[in-house]
């Protein structure tokens, strides 16, 4: 139940970011939910592999290279999903940072409601 709620909140964040950012588009609500599912899968499977392979670059940049990895994950989701598009690396970077911020805020509200 908690996982489904997190997916719906992530889809809501994706929809909101698509409305705010001119470089990101989502066709409809179903596409936003699919984006949330694909991002969850990519963050679970692909991201740890990329983090391990780029560990020296991440250490040298004091962790800032993780932003590049997050943007790559967003671009991978763009590649796999027809109803979702991001126009380039810069928009993917901005989208990933804002998505992380929105998800953090929404999840903190969720935790406060449970208490």
From TrEMBL:
The keyword Glycoprotein does not apply. It comes from the Bacteria. The keyword Heme does not apply. InterPro entries: Phage_holin_4_2. Keywords: Membrane, Transmembrane, Transmembrane helix. Coiled coil: none annotated. The chain crosses the membrane at residues 28-46, 53-77, 89-111. Pfam families: Phage_holin_4_2. PANTHER family: SLR0284 PROTEIN. This is Putative membrane protein. It comes from Aquimarina spongiae. The lineage of its organism: Bacteria, Pseudomonadati, Bacteroidota, Flavobacteriia, Flavobacteriales.
């Amino acid at each position: 139940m908690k996982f489904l709620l997190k997916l719906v909140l992530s889809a809501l964040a994706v929809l909101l970011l698509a409305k705010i950012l001119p470089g990101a588009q989502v066709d409809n609500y179903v596409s936003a939910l699919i984006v949330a599912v694909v991002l969850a899968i990519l963050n679970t499977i692909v991201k740890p592999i990329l983090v391990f392979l780029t560990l020296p670059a991440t250490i040298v940049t004091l962790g800032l290279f993780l932003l590049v990895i997050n943007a790559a994950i967003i671009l991978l989701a763009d590649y796999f999903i027809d109803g979702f598009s991001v126009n380039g690396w810069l928009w993917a970077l901005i989208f990933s940072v804002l998505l992380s911020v929105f998800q953090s805020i929404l999840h903190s509200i969720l935790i406060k409601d449970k208490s």
